[in-house]
Design brief:
By secondary structure, the chain is α+β, with helices and mostly antiparallel strands. It is about 25% helix and about 30% strand. It has 3 domains: about 90 residues; about 180 residues, Vaccinia Virus protein VP39 (Rossmann fold, 3-Layer(aba) Sandwich), CATH 3.40.50.150; about 80 residues, no CATH class. S-adenosylmethionine (SAM) binds next to helix 5 and helix 8.
């Protein structure tokens, strides 16, 4: 992350503007502060920390960082000049703007455009190096292939491949599949592939397959749609069969050492080691009620900055499958309060700020979708801010 260290620092008066950048206001805690910066494409914080030796570290703030690192570098450069800094260390020299890859989509895309999608959908969870996903995309140009992967380098690699191969039917998203499934309309997906998921033998709660995931998969699968799990782990195989069989009126098929049209890197390795490969295929036969489009969570009260400043202490609330952690408070007199929070599902927390000012409260830098765990967490946040 771009940052610099300076032994000279003359705090600039806010607001000020330079070119495309506006430096708007600053909020403070005991030994650090955040400056709100905006340009025509983004709003983000730069963070300032005074160290014990009198030096200042001025850096990009992680949670609010924009997709273009160049914005941060340019904002820090302008700020350094304005604050007459004498840089002892710096890594802020501007880099080339990052080219957007249009195969990778964010949650807003799913919420806005995807819900009403009419084409048949294949969904691959944890596609890794993407061999199977690319194979499905090439061979099914009439289908939409959605790939969900939490490992960013794999996601970016496969996105690049899609561009090179000019595949127009792929959508990739960096999110936890166990939560993202809540975005899909009921009975809308033809096939869900979960190939060689991490077995997590010692931490079964981290597994992709669970009773909740199975129920959600059955909800989003079309009639005769299939959830196809492929694994080399006998423990995961047993666990998946047990989990699927605990659902009512299900159709579960098991295959052993059955070759697919395409083999992944993992699969090649396990085959070389002489391991057995198991497929567990769950077919849906039920129509499920349609769900409403997932909304964004909004604060419904008019909050009082004074009260928040008086009552704030770092706090952790633990709920059933979710949590809320109020971490730090930064303020600008009694006008603006900025709370750093982490909240939501245990397996995929949102890390955001809550900004409270004369206009009310809002999440920053992005809004929050009302997944079930987020909704439960948001209720606690609202109640706590109101108390
Ligand atoms: C063992 S690799 C298998 C990759 C690929 N399916 C294959 O067969 O080669 C498991 C992949 O699942 C991804 N993964 C793990 N948990 C996930 C989750 N909750 N949502 C999406 N992807 C996940 C990991 O990042 C990893 O790339």
């Amino acid at each position: 992350m771009p940052n610099f260290v300076t032994d000279k620092f003359i705090k600039p008066l806010l607001p000020f503007s330079d070119g495309e950048y506006n430096f708007l206001w600053e909020v403070f805690s005991e030994n650090s502060s955040y400056v709100m910066v905006e340009n025509t494409s983004a709003r983000f914080f730069i963070a300032i920390k005074q160290k014990k030796d009198g030096l200042h570290v001025i850096k990009a703030e992680k949670i609010s960082r924009p997709s273009q690192v160049l914005f941060l570098q340019q904002a820090l450069e302008i700020y350094a000049k304005k604050a007459q800094c004498n840089m002892l260390f710096s890594n802020i020299s501007p880099s080339k703007p990052k080219r957007e890859n249009f195969v990778i989509k964010n949650l807003d895309f799913f919420a806005e455009n995807f819900f009403t999608n009419k084409k048949e959908i294949y969904l691959e969870v944890g596609f890794g190096s993407g061999r199977h996903l690319l194979y499905q995309a090439k061979n099914n140009p009439d289908k939409i292939i959605v790939g969900i992967e939490i490992h960013k380098p794999s996601l970016e690699q496969v996105a690049k491949q899609c561009e090179i191969l000019e595949l127009k039917n792929v959508i990739l998203v960096d999110y936890d599949s166990r939560i993202l499934m809540e975005f899909f309309q009921s009975n809308s997906v033809k096939r869900i592939f979960v190939h060689f998921p991490v077995p997590w033998d010692k931490k079964p709660h981290r597994r992709v397959i669970s009773s909740y995931f199975t129920k959600e998969a059955l909800r989003i699968l079309q009639i005769d749609g299939m959830l196809e799990v492929r694994t080399d782990s006998e423990l995961y195989f047993d666990y998946t069969v047990k989990t699927f069989m605990s659902e009512d009126s299900v159709d579960v098929k098991i295959l052993k050492n059955f070759d697919l049209e395409i083999s992944s890197k993992y699969e090649d390795r396990w085959k070389r080691l002489g391991k057995n490969i198991y497929d567990i295929v769950l077919t849906n036969h039920k129509i499920t009620e349609k769900i409403d489009k997932i909304a964004k969570l909004e604060f419904t009260f008019y909050s009082n900055v004074d009260k928040i400043i008086k009552n704030f202490t770092p706090k952790l609330f633990l709920g059933d499958g979710f949590f809320v952690h109020f971490e730090t408070l930064h303020v600008k007199s009694n006008e603006i309060a900025v709370i750093k929070t982490a909240f939501g599902a245990n397996e995929r927390a949102e890390r955001l700020f809550i900004i409270i000012d004369g206009k009310g409260a809002r999440y920053f830098p992005n809004s929050v979708y009302a997944f079930s765990a987020n909704k439960a967490a948001h209720e606690i946040i609202e109640k706590w801010l109101n108390e």
